[in-house]
Specification:
Structural class: alpha+beta
Distance between the termini: 38 Å
Helix content: 25-40%
Strand order of the largest sheet: 4-3-5-6
Number of helices: 4
Number of domains: 2
Strand content: 15-25%
CATH superfamily of the largest domain: Glutaredoxin
Order of helices and strands: EHEEHEHEEH
Number of strands: 6
CATH architecture of the largest domain: 3-Layer(aba) Sandwich
CATH topology of the largest domain: Glutaredoxin
Length: 141
């Protein structure tokens, strides 16, 4: 619940109530003769949450030239999306050599992009990367 006192529709500085209350006690939140505030409105404000920013995983290996190239392509595609005002995920690089289960799962199919349960294996072209991002994150038309 938010309690707002003062002239409706006006942009006021923090000290506006102090400066104007003495001149216009009933219009600008000054005190009434009974000691209560004047011109106050209570508004029920419900906070909304924005969906958490998605996380895109780039599964790769150390010293992998294709993986390094995909990282650059991904960065360029994300910069393009940002300049168009489209959503951009958090990127998390994962070295599959540090986890045997990831090594078994992805093996020779790296680099792999994964977002919201969808995967793009052997992501080695800018067109593939951009299409994957548009498909998983949506695109403004």
């Amino acid at each position: 619940m938010v309690r707002w006192c003062g002239a409706p529709g006006e942009i006021r500085t923090p000290d506006a109530g102090l400066r104007t209350a003495s001149l216009y006690p009933l219009s600008y939140g000054g005190a009434r003769h009974d000691g209560t505030a004047a011109s106050c409105v209570s508004i029920d404000v419900r906070m909304t949450t924005i969906d958490a920013q998605p996380t895109l995983h780039l599964y790769r290996r150390t010293d992998c030239e294709l993986c390094d190239r995909t990282r650059l392509l991904l960065q360029a595609a994300l910069e393009e999306r940002a300049t168009r005002g489209e959503s951009v995920p958090i990127v998390r690089e994962v070295d599959i050599d540090t986890d045997p289960s990831l090594e078994e799962r992805f093996g020779s199919r790296i680099p792999v992009l994964a977002l919201d349960g969808q995967e793009l294996e052997l992501a080695t072209s800018g067109r593939q990367v951009r299409a994957f991002l548009d498909r998983t994150l949506g695109r403004l038309v």
